[in-house]
Amino acid sequence: MAPRWITKASGECEEFSAGKLRTSLKSAGAPRTLIDEIVVHVESELGDDVKTSDIYHHAFTLLRRHRPPAAARYSLRQAIMQLGPSGFPFERFVGEILKAQGYTVEVGGILPGFCVNHEVDILAEKGNKHIFVECKFHNNNGIKSDVKVALYVKARFDDITKAHEMRAEGEGRHPRIHEGWLVTNTKLTSQAIEYSKCAGLTLIGWNYPKKGNLQDLILSTGVHPLTCLSTLEGNTKNHLLGNGVVLCRDIENNKHILREHGMTEDEIKSVLEEAGELCVPIAL
């Protein structure tokens, strides 16, 4: 049988892989029987001009019909892109993931550098370790964070670290351990990865590194954005985000916002049930 080709969001073409589809469905928590059904359905629908978005919509529709929590996990990438164009909810979201890992977190702080002051997206602290996190949010699957972004983040990190080390030396104390991170909701170019490995900058993207990528961190901590909930309509999600509610786990304490938006008690109950299932961390 001749290979079937699909067009990715970036415009690149690749051969369709039923194995990749099965892996993504399994990661979302779909049972094997439903995975088999979805793969057969998708393969039967494949034509000569198929996009990855077509495959996603077919799979998501079946998951939503039979297993809503699995549909929510499967839609994680799209859900993060719905956090909004400002990027601030994404910074808060990444901060909450770090909190779930035991870090003390400050979002949007100003730190002095050796040359200039810097606004840092996230400052995370645990013990003697400080992490300076730059978040790069994109609302298009086809966009990648490239080496220019990595260079920019590393330069800022080095300026902050130099100032800290000089202060520590002047005060006669040991400087803390520092790390610079670049976290993005999309992919990274090969040059960005190559440079960061050499320069000592930690990269976390949607599919990088192989273990400990953004998807892994979400599933293992149970920190999900409310935008992934299949029981909420788009305008309701935007209403919650506008009121500062970003996470599924925060909805329980903000039911009044849903009532004010016109949702019934039965509808709210369905939302809370789905959110509760998503908040359970998954061992990877």
UniProtKB/TrEMBL annotation:
**All copies of domain ATP-cone, residue ranges:** 4-85
InterPro entries, alphabetized: ATP-cone_dom, Restrct_endonuc-II-like, Restrct_endonuc_IV_Mrr, tRNA_endonuc-like_dom_sf
Keyword annotations? ATP-binding, Nucleotide-binding
| PROSITE patterns to which the protein is assigned, alphabetical | ATP_CONE
GO process terms (BP): DNA restriction-modification system
Q: Where are the transmembrane segments?
A: none
Say if the entry is tagged with keyword tRNA-binding.
no
Q: Which Pfam families match?
A: Mrr_cat (PF04471)
Source superkingdom: Bacteria
Which Gene Ontology molecular-function terms are recorded? ATP binding; DNA binding; endonuclease activity
Name this protein carries in UniProt: ATP-cone domain protein
Q: Please report the organism this UniProt entry assigns to the protein.
A: Candidatus Giovannonibacteria bacterium GW2011_GWA1_44_25
